[in-house]
Amino acid sequence: MEFSLWIRSLILLSLTSAALSATPRKPVDVPFGRNYVPTWAFDHIKYFNEGSEIELLLDKYTGTGFQSKGSYLFGHFSMNIKMVPGDSAGTVTAFYLSSQNADHDEIDFEFLGNRTGQPYILQTNVFTGGQGNREQRIFLWFDPTKAYHRYSVLWNMYQIVFFVDNIPIRVFKNSKKLGVKFPFDQPMKVYNSLWNADDWATRGGLEKTDWSKAPFIAGYKSFHIDGCETSVNAKYCAKQGRKWWNRPEFRDLDAAQWKRIKWVRKKFTIYNYCTDRTRFPQIPPECRRDRDI
């Protein structure tokens, strides 16, 4: 009996260890300069805590931004961001991945500013082979100007998942069988920026930026990249290797995650291109499965 219990304990321990090994690594926060460089308007970026936190400034002359040093093919990318407080109408705070080619691929988080007291809008979009127009918009269930929140992208051969504080808010599945291009062969850099877009960002451009409130400031920290850098071995990246994001459990959402997305869709979604029959009289092919959410 004791030997049997000992064997079962070993089996349980083995299964527990296997389950833990299948869990993605906790994001490792590194200083800004490890993975990123300023993109433009260097004097509009301020550094704090030995480069572990930065602020982007926008005034009537220019915005600013930064980009990853490397290009990546698949992985997990996240950033902690605190949005522009107060009257931020016309401003866009962005965190996105983009390839460099004309038929570019892109995965977007765009945070659209507001008049004081109005909720921020988070717009997500996916470009594949140069085609975008896949906007979805939600209200956030918290005030993103009061504290930092983590925004993440999981990208593999099977799906692209957008997360807010580890809650999935959108999934874009690989629908090549339906004739929809999927980003799988163009490396992307990671970009972050703060810029003026008062021609469209707030109420379709009706609300203009109030420059008397400038400079507008957005905070960034926790500069996490866990992706396959193509400059190291592009062939390895294309095959996905043994990276955790290619494991079977990350090829689809689990039941709890699908439940979360349905919660976001029901409670907070204010626009979904999949249901916009004015713009798209014919349902886009990739939206067929989206109707089940």
TrEMBL record:
* Keywords annotated in UniProt: Apoplast, Cell wall, Cell wall biogenesis/degradation, Disulfide bond, Glycoprotein, Glycosidase, Glycosyltransferase, Hydrolase, Secreted, Signal, Transferase
Q: Which residues are glycosylated?
A: 114
Q: Name one Pfam family in it.
A: Glyco_hydro_16
- Please give one Gene Ontology molecular function term for this protein: hydrolase activity, hydrolyzing O-glycosyl compounds
Q: State which gene encodes it.
A: 11442445
Q: Which family does it belong to?
A: Belongs to the glycosyl hydrolase 16 family.
TM region(s), chain numbering: none
Record's protein name: Xyloglucan endotransglucosylase/hydrolase
